[in-house]
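Bug report

Summary: structure tokens for DNA mismatch repair protein MutL differ between web form and batch submission.
Environment: batch mode, default settings.
Steps: 1) Submit the sequence below via batch. 2) Compare with the web form result.

Sequence submitted:
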Amino acid sequence: MSGLFAEPGMDTNPPTTPAHVRRLPEVIVNRIAAGEVIERPAAAVKELVENAIDAGAHRLEVSLAGGGVDRIIVTDDGMGMSPADLALAVDRHCTSKLRDETLVHISTLGFRGEALPSIGAAARLCITSRPRGESGAWRIRVEGGKVSPVEPAAGAPGTSVVVEDLFFATPARRKFLKSARVEGRHAENVVRRLALAVPQTAFRFVLDERVLFDLPAQDMAARSAALLDASEADGFLEISGERDGMTLSGFICPPSVHRSTANGQFMLVNGRPVVDPVLKTAVRVAYRRVIEPGRHPVVALMLTVPPDRVDVNVHPAKTELRFADEASVRSLVIGTIQRALEHGAGDVGVRPVLSSAPRQARIWYPPEKGAVPPVPAPAFHAPTPEGARFAEGRLQFGDAPAARTLPPVAMPSSGTGWDLPQTSANAEVTPPHAAAMAPAQPIAADHPLGAAIAQVLDTYILAVAADGSLVLVDQHAAHERLTHERLRAQFLSGHVQAQRLLVPDVVDLPRAQVDLLLARQPTLEKLGVEIEAFGGDSVLVRALPAMLRSSDAVNLLRDLADELEADENGAPDEMAALDGRLDAVIARMACHGSIRAGRRLSVEEMNALLRQMEETPRAGTCSHGRPTWLKLSKADLEKLFGRR
């Protein structure tokens, strides 16, 4: 029929030019695909551990040699595989985890059927598996993509996977690996994140014959504490939130516990460990006002999202995903964490990291009960004047006293307002009598910072909590946070006062950034930034916040536009370009308007400061993210003195 429509003289035969496109061998195809799935030893470990978890393992052991390049062994006590399953498991895109073809309701960690074929294409793979209830095990080997027949073997119930000489078949990839120490650390981080996903499964991780952790089956709180390793905090803050059918739970550390990298952030979405930029940005925004710049908080978050509102089939590694409503997820994470961080000081403290004295250097102490106190040697101790206690007495060698004790004071039932009673910096405090070291009344349990007993170096407040712990407070840092919160509440209670520019500035921006700024025009006006369209790709700036009167409008708008474009779901009041600058000004005002170090405080002023810290949100850190108070328990003091 085609000849009916052919023009006279047209050649209907195909050209005889030889084809340049050829079909690659299956082995080469597998090796190329392996580069996406198995990019480093940690990726191979991740895939194998996920398979073990999906197999219902109750105990799982991971052992690495040479950072995982020389050898990886993953052993589990899961359901095991039959000979037929073993033969299919090393074939690409064969899986037992997908029950339908919609790729929506995925309840397992693995589902793509690519891991084992990819590992077998790039390394020497040996799988030994014995199904539960069977009397014998079976084994299959794959070397550089070449599959050997399934054969009988000896093995315990479950599956043991041995990967040796990783990337021997793809030397180009092996050449770009890091040192064994670096690769081993990446693998450890991967296993830690997977261990958090299934706290009911026992995990053991061995690197170069050294056990790095051995975790029994635990609840989520115990597993989070073991994996986050934030021993310097008194405890975790438990969080819980719900929004638009999504739920968020988990544990976060107080702002005083932070790290130089984001390795301390564990995030699970529907039980799957992920490294998601939306969640990481939300955590950063939630902690921004209470943590030091450049530091990263320590969190363990478990987010549950309806399966039809999240896509996990984004990348072969399955660590990235896409949310149908990123703005809602972001709001849920930020709001839930910020509510947990808005507690006053005292709920979760900061304990200095203390080391015990070497055993050979420990000091023997006589029994505390019934022991006769030693008589001080007159040559080294002068008589203490009657009524003087702590460091009020005359010290040897002409030293000036560095601490002042306080007279007894009744514990106030509530805060005394924002402004502390004023006392002259040179005012003297009359030393109390010998029985006045403890508060006159029992310390109320609802006052976690306790009662002030002394001021050290005219800078630090010493208090005793209800449980007998010693609390140390930096008076300047603490009052700085109180002043900061008061000033911020004043500025943001309504519209921030704007200062109109004498000559409006014209800012030229890409059209997409202009649209982003104009779409958020009402929010910007509440923050004191008045803009309007100026035709084409320009924005006219008519006013800036009065607090930022020295700011450059052009640079401010450009920075703000860049941040909004990078995070299109973000709000202007979350961006460092604007809100960060406003907060920096408030922090400077709070710093200059706070009690200075070196000022002597009365007992009423100290206790008023403690009560306000307990009631003020985010009072655990100052405006610069440094801790405002520390806590030393009995165990901590015993470590300092070598008693334990």
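Above is the batch result. After comparison, the two runs are identical; trailing whitespace caused the diff. The mean pLDDT is 76. The first helix runs from residue 26 to 37.
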